[in-house]
TrEMBL record, chains A, B:
Keywords: DNA-binding, Transcription, Transcription regulation. The lineage of its organism: Bacteria, Bacillati, Bacillota, Bacilli, Lactobacillales. Transmembrane segments: none annotated. PANTHER family: LACI-RELATED TRANSCRIPTIONAL REPRESSOR, TRANSCRIPTION REGULATOR, MEMBER OF GALR FAMILY. The keyword Transcription regulation applies. One of its GO terms (molecular function) is DNA binding. This is LacI family DNA-binding transcriptional regulator. Residues 2-56 form the HTH lacI-type domain.
Length: 315, 315
DNA sequence: ATCTTCAATGTTATCGGTAACAAATTAATC
DNA sequence: GATTAATTTGTTACCGATAACATTGAAGAT
């Protein structure tokens, strides 16, 4: 490996000048800079990040903490990691995957946290390194997420435009911020149209949604659309309606949210919100690295949702 | 952060002695060792891996190269990563996720490679750091995998025991080693029973398998079991048989392979080979770290397959 | 012309460890 | 008991970078 000294010798300057060309180029004359650049190119010089890390007392490690149960893991996370890793690699940082159990083993320069619950706020506040949360939150942490409210707002709007006359929201029975936002999107659309809101909440499993349909089938009038907080629930609703003999999308409409995993195997495909998790992961990484560099708050980064048309709404 | 010097002062020895207690404990008297251990405990000393890496000219980074198309990514890889990360974290290594495009950016101490094809053998051979392949191969690389042959052998055996009289193998149309092994398992079982082998191969998509059933439905006699090389294919076969009016598991049996992803949403659940990818990932990590430490070949690590009973075989 | 001032470059010490060599202590040999 | 060998511990230099301070040299002020 070529080092600073090799470059310095070749360019006939001190190694400090080379270091400065890299880190404070404005403090070096153009003449020397050219010499140094030339030498770096000829020797194919790449700075040794380990040495850098040693003097900076940094680690070049970012921890990705997945706080949700690993059993429920979906490709979602895989895409997230791919996105994060892409950015980090570019900046010569590396990603460490940790869970609740082992998150405090070893040092790092920053955290990306996903699956945060209320109970986690405390210890996250106490972390001494920059943090970015993946998933919206109302505790003031910087975060990256889809605009959840706009998502359900748009889907509700679309359902109405397709002529469904009744809109039932099927939500997740949890106190998390994203759920409130998705409900809010539905509510706003419904209120704008002066309709009666109808909300139901279940654990995020398809069979809960399916049971709900079965148990209430007679009260579910024709021409109803279900705005679901997740693809899982949407699939349950579809299954329930189908088993009860209802016709999708002619008599009933269904929309989901997420569009990562289940949509690949579902039949018919759910009309849902497509999230570009990879892109969001990259954003997460960049957000965090900026934060590390500048030591500044970066604020939230909200991605505008895109509808992915499936076969569960008319047309 | 407490350093070697802090510990050395507290224990009234030179820092070199402390270093030796950690790395060559046999070269230090028990008396001093106790003093040093005591001091380390009191100061809660943890070695600085960055400094270590600098003098050892190592990086403490392991690259996980996923060579398959990211689009086809399944939770499979997520589990793999969790397994690998678990081991690496324990040894204070960190994992870097790379793909074909960016695999040579930045240094590392070793590679774990998955999704290897024949075309990759060349450059993998040329890598200068230790390598472990995830997935069996016949090029002499160390690897970790399920015993693929035993897997299909056992499933075939089970199908016969359940009384199915005809066994059709549905394989993946690719030249990869795992496919050959799965075929071999089926063949061995069939030959032991002096039956006529019947093999078909398709791209690894459920609709190919489904079409196959439709196109050949009249020649598919009752009491046939399909030994499939993947859950995807198995799901296609199930769908095909169901659509043609066949009854599973009464008149037709189906088995898959993998049991990670699709099995969660399939209905009925496929009888398949369950692979503990997390565990295999850990093994991968340990294998590689051993290799880095000893600079030795570690050989293959083959996990014995376990059958996961679903509803696609009788009983 | 001399003294400041400031910008451009070089020197030295440092980050936290380890290897290689030096010194000190103990044990072994004659 | 003196000499040598072996074991244990300490000293120094180094890994590859950067910060802090020192030096040089040219422009501007008096």
């Amino acid at each position: 490996m070529t080092t600073l000294v090799d470059v310095a010798k070749k360019a006939n300057v001190s190694k400090m000048t080379v270091s400065r060309v890299i880190n404070h180029p404005d403090k070096v004359t153009d003449e020397l800079k050219q010499l140094v650049y030339q030498a770096m190119r000829e020797l194919d010089y790449h700075p040794n990040m380990i040495a850098k890390a040693l003097v900076n007392k940094s680690t070049r490690i970012i921890k990705l903490c997945i706080l949700e149960d690993i059993d429920t893991t979906e490709p979602y996370y895989m895409n997230l990691m791919i996105g994060i890793a892409k950015t980090l690699d570019l900046h010569q940082y590396s990603l460490q995957l940790v869970t609740r159990k082992n998150f405090d083993i070893g040092n790092c320069d920053g955290y990306i946290i996903t699956g945060m619950r209320e109970q986690d706020v405390e210890w996250i506040r106490n972390l001494k390194k920059p943090v970015v949360i993946f998933g919206e939150n109302r505790y003031g942490f910087d975060y990256v997420d889809t605009n959840n409210k706009t998502g359900t707002y748009l889907l509700s709007q679309l359902a109405l435009k397709k002529g469904y006359e009744r809109l039932i929201y099927v939500g997740i029975d949890s106190k998390e911020s994203f759920e409130y936002s998705r409900e809010a999107g539905y509510l706003q659309q419904v209120q704008e149209k002066r309709m009666m809101p109808e909300l139901h909440r279940f654990g995020n499993h398809s069979h809960f949604a399916e049971e709900f349909i079965r148990d209430n089938w007679k009260s579910i009038t024709n021409n109803t659309a279900f705005i679901c907080a997740s693809d899982r629930l949407a699939i349950g609703i579809v299954r329930g309606i189908t088993r009860c003999g209802g016709k999708i999308p002619d008599d009933y409409g269904v929309t989901g949210f997420d569009g990562v995993f289940l949509n690949q195997v579902a039949s018919p495909k759910i009309t849902t919100i497509k999230q570009s998790i990879i892109e969001m992961g990259s954003a997460c990484g960049e957000n965090l690295l900026d934060k590390i560099d500048t030591n500044d708050k970066q604020g939230a980064l909200v991605f505008e949702p895109k509808i992915s048309l499936g076969g569960t709404l008319r047309d």
